[in-house]
Structures are given as C-alpha cells and as structure tokens.
Amino acid sequence: MQIHYNFAFFDEGSKREIRRATLKAIAIPGYQVPFASREMPIARGWGTGGLQLTLSLIGKDDVLKVIDQGSDESVNAVNIKKLVMKTAGIKTTEETQEATIIQSRHRIPEIPLTEGQILVLQVPLPEPLRDYEPSEYNTKRLHAEKEYSGAWLMLFEQIMKYGHMASDFDHPVMVENRYVMAPSPIPRFDNPKMHYSKALILLGAGREKKIYAVPPYTKVVSLAFDDYPFEVESFEDKHCRLCGATGVYLDELFNEETGETYYQCNDTSYCLSRLNEQSESRGVQHG
Amino acid sequence: MGYVAVKGGTIAIEESIKRLKYERLKKGVVLDIGRIEAGLRGLIDQVMSESSLYDETLAALAIKHAEGNLEEAVFLLRAYRSTLPRKHYSQIVNTKDMSIERRISASFKDIPGGQILGATTDYTHRLLDFDLMEETDEDAVNWLSAYEKEMLDEVDEKHFGKLPKVSDYLRKEGLFSECVMDNTEPDDVTRKSLTFPSTRSQRLQVLTRGQTGAVTSLAYAVIRGYGSLHPTVGELRVGYLPVYIDSPFHSFNREDDAYYIGEIKATEVEMLIPETVEIGDGKKEIKFEIGYGLCFGQNETKAIAMGILDNSLEKGNRDYPTGDEEFVLYHIDSVESTGFISHLKLPHYVTFQSKLDIVRKSKSKQEM
User: Fold this and answer.
1) Is A59 a catalytic site residue?
2) Are B210 and B74 in contact (CB under 8 A)?
3) Is residue A254 part of a domain?
4) Same domain, yes or no, for A140 and A255?
C-alpha cells in the first residue's frame, strides 16, 4: 500500500487554516492566536508548531534553513529538514543569508536577518504568565485586560530573593506596548534581536496550539525595571576557540584531557563562515 | 580549502534508524498484517480509539511499524490522520441503532431485552494458558467449525438487534434530572482548538481520544476520593453502529438518498450518578445524573472512565483536580503528553547555558 503525501505534507485546507491564523497573528503583534494544531510526523514538543508554520508557508522557490540550539547539524534540526525535503522537495541551506525561511529552536542567528526573511521559532510554552497562573481561561483574560502586574511581580520577587532578575531563557518581552509575550526559550542574549527586526518572526506552539508573531519593525522590549535593567548572559573576556569571535553566544565546553573549560560559537554556521573568511584572507596574504 | 560543517548528526541519525529496523527484523520473522488484525483485537481497538481514526488495517500497520509500542502506533496514525482532507460529515449516528453484541447493566437485573454477556474477559480466570504456546491455525479452524455448529442449534436471533436503552426506563420513572434536548452543532477540537470554558462536545471528544491509561487513572481518582461517590454502570453496550452520509448529488437530502458507508464498532456507557437537587423551600431530593462514555472499539474500562470524568467535569467542582476541566482535558492526550515528555531528550545546551549564567550570577552576588 503506497501512500503519496500532498506537497508539504498537509492537505491544502489545513495549510490555508494555518496561514489564516498566521495572518491574524501578524495583525495583532504578540497576541497568541489559537489554531487547530495538527498531529505531525514528529513528536509534540519537538518543534511541531514551527514545523506547521514552515509547511504552511513554504513554496517551491523557498530555501529553508533549520537550526536547533544554534546548530544546523543537531539531530532534531536534521530530522525536521529531512521531513520538509521529503514532502516538499525544496532547497535547504546552512547559510543564514541564503535562507528565505529559517526554522529555529531556541536561537536567533548571529548574522542579522533581513527584510523578506521569515524566522520561525519553535515554542514549547507560549504563555508568559503560566508561571503564576496555570489556567488558560484566566491568562486569556489577563491578556485581554492588559493585567500584567503578576509578570512584574515575578521579576520583583526574583530581585528580592537573589538580588537580580533570575530569569534565564525565555525572558518575557512587551510587544508594541500591548502584549507581554514569551519570546520562546531563546537566551536573553537574543531578546534584543527581536526589537525592530527586519525579518518577520513567527512563533508556533504545536502542543499548546498557538501561533503568534512579531512583524518586521515592531517594538519588542524585555521586561525590566529602571534600577534593575535587563541583562544578557555574560561572556565577558571569553571568545570562540575556533574563530575568535566575541560578543556572540558561546557554548561552554570541557576538555577532558586538560580539564580546561573553553568556549565555542553556539551558532555553528556563523562560526564556519568566519573560519572560511579568515582562511580566504590568509590565502590572499600568503598568495 | 574551506571549512565545512561536520555531518555527524545526519549520519548518526541514519545509523540509528537502521538500528531500529534491525531490532524489528533481527529474529528473521515478520508479522503479517492479517495476523495482527486477527489476533490483536484489544490493541487495535485501543489504537483506533486513541488515534480517532477507525481503520483496523491501518491500525494493524501502525502496530507492526511501531513494534507493538502503543504510544508510537497512536502517534503514527494521528500523524497520518493530519494529511486526510475532510470530505464528508456523517449523518447523526444514533446509538439506539446499535446492533448489539454485548450489553450489561449493573443497576438492574432485569433490563428490557436482557443482559447479554457477549465476549468479555470479566469472568475468566487470569491463568496463563500455556496451551496457546502450541496453538495452530488448524486448531483455530477446527474450533470454529465446532462452535459454528453449536451456534446454529442455539442461536437466539432476538439478541442480535436493536435494544431499548436502560436510561429510557429511568427517564420514564422521572428519576433523572430534567435535561433539555441539545441539538447544537458539535465542536471539533481537531479543527478548532479547545477553548475554555469548554463545551460538552469538546469535552467528550477530548475524553474519547484520551490515552486509555490517563483517562482510567483520573477517573479512578474521582471514585476513590477526589470527586463523586460511587457511580453505577447504568448500561454498557458494545456493538456496531451503521454510518450514513448525505448524498453528495442532492442539495436536499431525503432519508433514503443517504449512502451507507460502513459500520464502526463502539463501546457506549451510561453511568448513573446520584445527585442531590434542591426542589425549593429548602427541600432536597436525590435524582440521577448521567455520565456518558463512547469509544471506538471494545474499550470498556476507558468508556466507563470517560463516563465518570464527563460527569465530574460537568459538575466542575474545582476542589478536586478531576473537576478542573483544564487539568483533565489538557493532560490526557497521548500524543501531547508523550511528545512533551520525550522532548526532554532533545539537546538543551543553549537554555542550560543560560541557566548556568544565572546560577553563577546568584552565587557570586551571595558571596559578596
């Protein structure tokens, strides 16, 4: 029994429905639009929200890049890319600039995105207020009434307890002075990249059945207090062991033999292109 | 010479998938789909019910593919279901039209139409039958022909047909709380996501698709102490329901224009749950409420559990988690719960690094 799937897996009706929810999300920046999330051939929690967005958007001329925690080669990124290639047969790339759609889990690439590009972020927990309010019925009301004192209080309590804000990744942001939004579990380091992003940012939560968006040139501000400003992860005095980059998000690695801790670019494609540039310019010098 | 990405991930995945196939095939014997359909009825029924897809052959294929791993088989079928366009809606299926194979009531001994035990493990001794180790197809055929002969002599035709509902009897007696006929178009949570407060049709749909173990456990909590008192099985029936669709060629459909597209096996349960109701002037009386369960296939425990949860969500007593619709409905889906639990196996290097940063920061602050 041979089953042939439609282009990009879904039937056209399903794609249209997801695109409709996406359009609504773009029209109301930061608002979580419910949609009838489909079950996908990859597991819930493994990027089905992002995947549904990607599959609903993709056309024959698109070039897709998929990254998972900064890496194009991470098992799940490979897996998602393989699935899209299998069902849509489109071109994939590891070059950030080359891609028209970039699906990512928990990172925004180091190379600034441009107009016309779409960044699709996978979201496990789309509700920024869930930490203190388990009920969906209630959080929906809180958003409707722009009642965010709980979110502020949460940060305030962290300061009281630890002397600083203790949110790690997924630090909540305020979108266009209206909706508090979970930026997905990107490190705090990536939050500022959302602010006035030239690229369209779409966020998809498959299991929680929500789509939301940050349209290009939208104001995105990380929640913070005047006297306790928002701080990104510190990689002060650290650089990438391979390409020497500073001011990027680094992975902390451990050398078993020397017992040394060293650092490496988390964005592997960024690191690679820097290495290639360096070797080319060296080549020019020597040649 | 430029640097290229290490292609470790891709190769490792391919090898892992090969290894998975090896595990399925390593004994040099493959499962025949027909044999799965013939012999794994319980598993097939459970898979169809949790997948919301009624197709025994596809369920058998999923079971083979998943090596009998239930959550994986359900996952496969659900993903396949996502690709199917919705071409028709059936006409209303009335369970009064069920051709019954099994039907019991724990509330009344003498129910109109009688109790029909049908096929059930309820009265078997769970002693491993070692004879089955040696069972052959020939044994099966022989047993069948003997059984069929026996049936010809004894069969009582009236048992295989439509039977009145036990609840009709109670309703006539006025022992039920009044409820109005509700003919609103049911919601479909696979087309429009669940909203709160939920509608009854949303609740019933999520419950019937729920993971059998999860639905059973939560219902067990209800009757053990976190919810209502001891409910009674008013009626449990297992049988086949005919499914008709409107003729696509007529804009206006008469009943005889409809097309019969097949039948589905289902388990239907009506639980009777005693409830105290105010009748005015501070007076109270006890009436019965119904908890309703309906599942694809023969899934009796699940259908009963569904009936219990239907009622506890209908009451919505937030003192118990089992009365909180978000708590119950958001957490019983197999694909969702197993997916999110298993995602913990994915790399979390970036997020963990971010956590480390905060842990170090709070440490250094305290040392100051």
Assistant:
1) no
2) no
3) yes
4) no
**Residue ranges for chain B with pLDDT beneath 50:** 1, 158
| A85 in the same domain as A16 | yes
Task: Report the alpha-carbon distance of residue B148 to residue B153 in Å, rounded.
Answer: 9
Q: What is the DSSP letter of B235?
A: E
Interface confidence (ipTM) of the complex: 0.80
Both structure tokens of A281? 């310019």
Query: What total number of domains does chain A contain?
Result: 2
- Residues A50 and A73: their CA atoms lie apart, in Å, by 17
- Please tell me which residue in A150, A204, A243, A244 is annotated as part of the active site: A243
Judging contacts by C-beta atoms under 8 Å, the chain B residues touching residue A78 are: 9-10, 13
pLDDT: which is higher, B5 or A229: A229
Q: Compare CB distances from A69 to B83, B350, B362 and report the shortest one's residue.
A: B350
Put simply, the answer to whether B336 touches A1 (Cβ < 8 Å) is: no
- Cβ–Cβ below 8 Å for B81 and A39: yes
Please say whether the dihedral angle defined by the alpha carbons of residues B325, B328, B331 and B334, taken in this order, is positive or negative. Answer: negative
Q: Does residue A7 lie in a domain region?
A: no
A107 with A147, same domain: the answer is yes
* Closest by Cβ to A40, choosing from B2, B82, B196: B82
Backbone φ and ψ of A254, nearest 5°:
-130, 125
Whole-model pTM?
A: 0.87
Chain A contact for B99 (CB, 8 A cutoff) = no
Please check whether residue B271 is in contact with residue B307, taking contact to mean a CB–CB distance below 8 angstroms: yes
Rg (CA), chain A: 20
**Does residue A198 share a domain with residue A74?**
yes
- Judgement on whether residues A80 and A36 belong to the same structural domain of the protein: yes
Identify whether residues A159 and A63 lie together within a single domain: yes
* Tokens 């962290």 -> residue: A158
CA distance B93 to chain A (A): 25
A265 → chain B, closest CA residue = B350
- CATH code for the domain in which residue A184 is found: 3.40.50.11310
Q: Report CB contact under 8 Å: B85, A11.
A: yes
Summarize pLDDT for B104-162 with one digit per residue, the tens: 998 888 888 889 999 999 988 899 999 999 999 999 999 999 999 988 877 655 455 77
What does the block give as tokens for B18?
């090969």
A272 and B7 in contact by Cβ < 8 A?
no
Among B358, B360, B362, pick the best mutation site for testing chain A contact (most A Cβ within 10 A).
B358
| Pair A105, A29 in one domain | yes
Looking at residue B104, what DSSP letter applies? Answer: E
**Residue to substitute from B58, B86, B206, B354, interface A, most A β-carbons within 10 A:** B354
Residue of B327, B342, B353, B366 best to disrupt the A interface, most CBs of A under 10 A: B353
Q: Which domain holds residue A258?
A: 234-287
**Both structure tokens of B43:** 């598993």
Considering the domain architecture, whether residues A147 and A82 belong to the same structural domain is answered as: yes
Residue of A nearest to B198 (CA): A137
In a domain, A190, yes or no: yes
Tell me whether residue A22 is in a domain.
yes
How many C-beta neighbours within 10 Å does residue A58 have?
Answer: 23
Q: Which residues of A touch B335 (CB under 8 A)?
A: 39, 43-44
Tens of pLDDT, residues B205-235: 999 999 999 999 999 999 988 876 779 999 9
